[in-house]
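User: Um, any thoughts?
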Amino acid sequence: MSKGRETIEQLRDWGLTLPGAHLKSPWPGHSDLAVNDKTFAYLSTDDAFQMSAKLRYTSEVALELPFAAPAAYGLGKSGWVTFTPGDDAIPDLAQLKDWIEESYRAQAPKKLVNELDARG
């Protein structure tokens, strides 16, 4: 298994621990994370790492990375960033989780965000 696929699987497993999170597969090649049927992380299912997240607060900094770009289909205008690093450039798991949590907080209802905050 490639490092990219392994990392995506770790992120998917972790993301499903967030309050109300579930899988959503809107098209082939994706098994995305959603809350209340609103996607908060687009995650590829192939060996290459690809992830998109809604980064309301950190998109400008994230876009400075050489493997980051505004998400396609006009989502970039709303702060969505797509990451496509090679296996040798995948950010550490803690950073990736931070981006996914930021995206979750942007998409989840306040009640679920409060539940996440109560966890500590």
Observations:
- The first strand starts at residue 21 and ends at 24.
- The mean pLDDT is 94.
